Amino acid sequence: MVWDGGRAAGSGGVSFFQVMPAYHNPSGEKAYIMNMYTHPEYWRRGIARKLLDLLVQEARDRGVTAISLEAAAMGRPLYEAYGFVSMKREMELP
User: pLDDT tens for residues 22-76?
Assistant: First the structure.
């Protein structure tokens, strides 16, 4: 969370999980960034970028190199500028 006094200005989270190891991710450890949000009154102040920095750094500090997220259209420019690349969406069998 990012606070401005007692007011929430932004938030973000990261979830860590294990998948089957693969040639591109031998450890099988992954990080999924989620729930990125900045209150509209705080847009264009670098809050989302700083949150993203902190979340990615936490993953790297844990030795996780496979980091992913899903992006809404509004957030896509930030993630692309950071270095994330678009991938096809996964499918799930309920």
Answer: 888 899 999 999 999 999 999 999 999 999 999 999 999 999 989 999 888 899 8
pTM of full prediction above 0.90: no
Closest CA to 56 of 48, 67, 45: 67
Q: What are residue 75's phi and psi, to 5 degrees? A: -90, -15
Residue 45 per-residue DSSP state:
S
DSSP states of 46-62: SHHHHHHHHHHHHHHHT
Q: With the CA atoms of 32, 47, 10 and 71 taken in that order, what torsion angle do they form, in degrees rounded to the nearest 10?
A: -40
User: Cα angle at 17 between 54 and 10, to 5 degrees?
Assistant: 30
Q: Compute the distance between CA of residue 11 and CA of residue 8 in angstroms, rounded to an integer.
A: 8
